[in-house]
Design goal:
alpha+beta; 24% helix; 118 residues; two-stranded parallel sheet; metal-binding
């Protein structure tokens, strides 16, 4: 923010040195911009480099939250099913991957059922 300044006694300037984009941040792909409609997140690599920032990758530590999330779901305090757009038999997995690759409309999360049932 090039024009950042303190204007009121309660204002503060904060230098952000670390941030992240989680894989579940689907709002980046909801089509607000032309880039997002293509499944791309806008990112200024020049400014990133100029400010001497660094980037890392990795998976969040899901195991830390599994039990807590399981209990919330079991007690009907969380309902994750809204994320699931399709349920497929295991032999339909290639169809699911194809739809994800082309970012087909409506494909958000797929459950694969190895036994074919639901």
């Amino acid at each position: 923010m090039p024009d950042a300044r303190i204007e009121r006694p309660t204002d503060a300037l904060v230098r952000i040195t670390t941030t992240n984009i989680c894989g579940s941040d689907l709002h980046l792909y909801d089509g607000r911009t032309d880039l997002q409609k293509q499944g791309k997140a806008p990112f200024d690599y020049g400014m990133f480099w100029f400010k001497g920032q660094s980037m890392g990758t990795g998976q969040c530590n899901v195991k830390n939250y599994n039990r807590q999330l399981m209990n919330l779901i079991a007690n009907h305090k969380a309902e994750p099913s809204f994320l699931v757009s399709h349920e497929l038999k295991l032999d339909q997995a290639p169809e699911g991957y194809r739809n994800f690759d082309v970012r087909a409309d409506g494909w958000t999360k797929v459950l694969l059922h190895p036994d074919g049932g639901r």
